[in-house]
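Step 1: inspect the first sequence and its tokens.
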Amino acid sequence: MKGPLFYSKILLFGEYGIIKDSRGLSIPYNFFKGALKKSDHLEGKALESNKNLNQFAVYLQEVQTESPDLVSFDLDSLKKDIREGMFFDSSIPQGYGVGSSGALVAAIYDRYGKDKITVLENLTREKLLRLKAIFGKMESFFHGKSSGLDPLNSYLSLPILINSQDNIESTSIPTQNPDGKGAVFLLDSGTVGETAPMVQIFMEQMKHEGFRKVLKDQFIRYTDACVEDFISGNVKSLFGNIKKLSNVVLNHFSPMIPKEFHQLWKQGIESNSYYLKLCGSGGGGYILGFTEDLDQAREALKGHRLEVVYNF
């Protein structure tokens, strides 16, 4: 048995903001992927994955009991496959903000979901919201609370435009320019980030009126502008807004930025050779970078590994 491949995702814009109804844009990232497989001899990561799937199956039974109108699964087949050595074979790094649990959730729903919404049907807004709700419930097993966007992106393998919590749509983004000098890239922080503690910090900060004002007047405003610029291909305006967004994150979201990257972050803004932003919840994992000149950014970030995600 080898299941279809499910890809990682990158939330280009909208981290934290989408909790408070900013816009967001999430794209599939085919460099990392995962699939359900079986083996007679489980060891190492495969054995660990199999044990996790066992716990996940117990959780899905609870979800089905609590929300029978939302989703139901072929639990007998799922449990049988787990007993027979099923695991999720994935190259998606965990705790890096690129959707490792999202791909697994999408794979399980795809194989074991009953009366499932398929990617081939006409995906109305209602269907997208229903899928998002199902995936949010499923992925909560891994994060305590989930928006459901990561699995949705992985399941559909399409860019998702988030207009607000209850207004999402699949969208198209401008075709990449393989010869372009500009790029979106991933920068490896070298440490794993945990989602739950970062979200906890954010929620604590939200208790302060000053932070809420910054979030509304600056963070969400620049995020929305970046989404609009990216989708419409307005690169000049995009970089102006990303610089402002990067600055707001450095000044007000510093606990989410690994300490050793504060200086690099500042350096990018001051030199204009690149701008950094959070990839997912932060705290480690990948950091997203935007540059109008990739060679210049590589030079400025010597000693760090850059993975190009998109070329302008």
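Step 2: inspect the second sequence and its tokens, then contrast the two.
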Amino acid sequence: MTALWLQRHAQPLVAPGVCYGRTDLAADDRATAAAAQALQGAWTAEALPAGTVWHSPLQRCTQLATALQMQAPAFQLRACNDLAEMDFGAWEGQRWDGIAREEMQAWTADFMAYAPGGGESLATMMARVTRALDAARQQARETGQPVLWISHAGVAQCAHWLLTRGQRLPLAKDWPSVKLAYGEWLRLPLFSDL
């Protein structure tokens, strides 16, 4: 099975309860080093060759990609804008519990098309994750190896949804479809019958 390994960045340096989406934050250095070590250990345990690490260009993901490369220099890093977190527009930097209830209701009522804070809609984000998945499939076909992404919870949600539910559109009640803690990864099959 050719898999997508999707690693989430380590704990960002932000107060709990803050919407930070596309905000370019650093992550905790110790947590980043531990996440890189765990991932490199799992990759080695499965005897997988070092290849290209696709990562979000946001600092917290670049940190983890760089830490992984320091432990395993054969990994090559490639920033990919399609792997960035959702842009929450004017909501960025606000506490989730401080966002107007009407705005949150508008988002849940039109979950795919509404752009939270005037930022990016889920439909737009799903389209760019679909592009990234197409590139991952192409790489897997060419190399016969798994693909490694270092990204965000939102990207993990989109990839998981697209790879496990096909073209069915999510509703707010369906989300999140998977939970991925800071520094954790999941493996998803890149090719399926969906």
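Step 3: confirm your contrast with the notes below.
The two ends are 15 Å apart (CA to CA). The chain has five helices and five strands.
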